[in-house]
Automatic annotation (TrEMBL):
Belongs to the CpsD/CapB family. It comes from the Bacteria. One of its GO terms (cellular component) is plasma membrane. It is an enzyme of class 2 (transferase). Keywords: ATP-binding, Kinase, Nucleotide-binding, Transferase, Tyrosine-protein kinase. Its EC number is 2.7.10.2. This is non-specific protein-tyrosine kinase. It catalyses: L-tyrosyl-[protein] + ATP = O-phospho-L-tyrosyl-[protein] + ADP + H(+). PANTHER family: FERRIC ENTEROBACTIN TRANSPORT PROTEIN FEPE, TYROSINE-PROTEIN KINASE. It comes from Flexilinea flocculi. The keyword Hydrolase does not apply. GO terms for molecular function: ATP binding; non-membrane spanning protein tyrosine kinase activity. Pfam families: AAA_31.
Length: 254
């Protein structure tokens, strides 16, 4: 069982399909015209839940991580950023996966000069490295892959960068590597307000999830909740499907 101080559980409904690299790279976004109603509503629910758990503390800097690779955390980081923008928030998305960055390819943003987080941490200008995306949020790519990602993410400079960005943005969403395999995400915990833990259905084992949570708990990371990604609605849940279909019809004809 996952033990968390606060509950923030959102199911992301998708069609039952085989998980492979091609499916993961073809990122579904809430701005896509063919995105299912349930899928879009799940992100609105996530956004609302973050507000609810922010009663005593504002979660301005949010880290997105998972137990193992291919659980969909990068897609969730992108769609959560879009969701915040839709309610008028100023958002920056940071690719803090300095080993195998994916956000640039998902967003179609590949700066020729390879500026990004790693180069900013080693002295390059922060604002000259930030890109503005077609989704109306700003984006700080990972930059050049460094030989020492853990040291960079845990450095004083990393804390100073996030502190500066807090003055410029309503929300800072950070995509990080999986917890079980690397210590990068754990190292970054000291600088963020809260962590959202992504679990893809039928991907990570219970033992892998428990191990990842223990690593986060060992540094007193503030895990504000979990997301069950690629949740497949059971075939016998006709009542639930009718509920969502009725509301989908309502909003489409409103």
């Amino acid at each position: 069982m996952l033990t968390m101080d606060r509950k923030l559980l959102t199911n992301f409904f998708r069609k039952n399909q085989k998980i492979n690299d091609q499916n993961i790279r073809s990122l579904k976004k809430i701005t896509d015209e063919n995105s299912p109603f349930q899928f879009v509503e799940a992100y609105k629910s996530l956004r609302t839940n973050i507000d609810f758990v922010s009663v005593n503390k504002r979660y301005q800097t949010i880290e997105i991580t998972s137990a193992i690779p291919k659980e969909g955390k990068s897609g969730i980081a992108i769609n959560l950023s879009i969701s915040f923008v839709e309610i008028g928030k100023k958002v920056i998305l940071i690719d803090a996966d300095l080993r195998k960055p994916m956000l640039s390819s998902y967003l179609g943003e590949n700066p020729a000069d390879a500026k990004g987080l790693s180069t900013v941490l080693t002295g390059c200008d922060l604002y000259a490295s930030i890109l503005h995306t077609k989704f109306h949020f700003d984006f700080l790519p990972a930059g050049l892959i460094p030989p020492n990602p853990v040291e960079l993410l845990g450095s004083r400079q990393m804390g100073e960068i996030l502190c500066e960005l807090r003055n410029e943005y309503d929300f800072i969403v950070i995509d990080t590597p999986p917890v079980s395999l690397l210590t990068d995400a754990v190292t970054l915990c000291q600088f963020v307000d809260g962590i959202i833990f992504v679990i893809r259905q039928k991907t990570a084992s219970i033992d892998q999830i428990k191990f990842a949570m223990k690593k986060l708990e060992s540094v007193k990371a503030n895990v504000i909740g979990a997301i069950l990604n690629d949740y497949v609605v059971p075939k016998d849940s006709s009542q639930s499907k009718n509920y969502y279909n009725n509301y989908s019809d309502y909003y489409q004809h409103k």
